[in-house]
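Late entry, evening session. Most of the bench is empty. Finally got around to the prediction I had been postponing all week. Sequence below, unchanged from the version circulated by S.P.
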Amino acid sequence: MGSGSRINITAALCIAGAAVIILTIFADTVLLRELKYSYNNTEAIISGIAAGDESGDTLLKYLKEAPDKAWLVSGQQHMEAYGYGTSAQTLWGQKYHAAQKRLICASILFDALILLFFFALAILLQKQNTRRVYALEKALCSLQTTDSTEFFLPASIDSILKDRLLALQKQIESDRHKMWQEKESTKVLVTNISHQLKTPVAALKTSLEILSGEELGETERKEFLVNCIHQLDCLENLTEALIGISRMEKGVIQIQAVYAPVKDAILSAVNRLYEKAASKQISIELCDNNCAETVNVLHDKKWTAEALANLLDNAIKYSGEHSKILMRTEEMASYVRISVEDYGIGIPKEERHQIFKRFYRGKLVSHLEGSGVGLYLAREIMEKQNGTIFVLSRPGKQKGSIFSVQLPKA
């Protein structure tokens, strides 16, 4: 509880104490007025009865019933004739003033006790609030300690504040963990990008230095120029991959998934890689049971083709010449599965859970060209369409891999 709350409570207590005292003074004033009126009237009536030579029965009647107004008037006149009612006091008046003094003293004592009570209450509340603030300060200091795994909560903090502090502590720990993961991810990202840029830049620099500093024949010059163009293509492909990753992770790319047959996406992916496969004399065979053109699945044609093209590109890159790649489409109970099967170098079992990570390159392909982003982008695209992607790899002599994507049916 803050200082503002403590000031508000103290002010409220002061106002309450002042209100009680004011009410007490008002009640005393009214009571004294009535008491004085009663004393004066009583002595005047008794004087009036005595002046009229009334009998004792009349006096007893006055004590039991309401008196006649004539007694009051005559009694007042009778007392004034003897000088009473102004400066001189009767015994009855002296008793009234004594009672008045006792009532005033009792009221003053009562008001003092009220003030003392509210003052003690204000001090008690202030001490409690001070203890709560101190306990909260200790809890926040403990919460602020970055190298502490145990969060200290004093027993004096109430349950509602404890729950909120514990929730805050969990949120802070979660944020710290996310920040640590992002920091480590950034380190890995910078390292991977540096590694990916290092090879083509070094090769390009070497080729340009040779072209500019040595006498070369026409054939050699053309070879170095072709190599420069090739390295520039590698840099361009890497730049496009990095831009695609950035746009995908920032949500700039909006995937518009609709229910439609997936055949057009498959054909688009095959057409993009057909020439690359033909250059290695690799055949791409489509195995379909007509579900690709008859079953509606949730997907974005453009980006599904992009994901399938990445799978095909990997299959072509890591397959030997004169081999083949099979693309199968199968209808399951609630989804359609599209598989890309190759007979290439395969993937070690211990690496299969890592190949979909950004910039990951396996040991068997580290010496080959590649950016390590194709499978990562394929996974991101599939997940944004409520789909999945996984890989199977054949061990032993019969090598190769089967990458499969699954998209939900309508």
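Two things to note before I forget:
Strands lie at 258-260, 283-288, 297-299, 324-331, 335-341, 388-393, 401-408.
The chain has three domains: 3-144, 159-250, 258-408.
Will write this up properly tomorrow.
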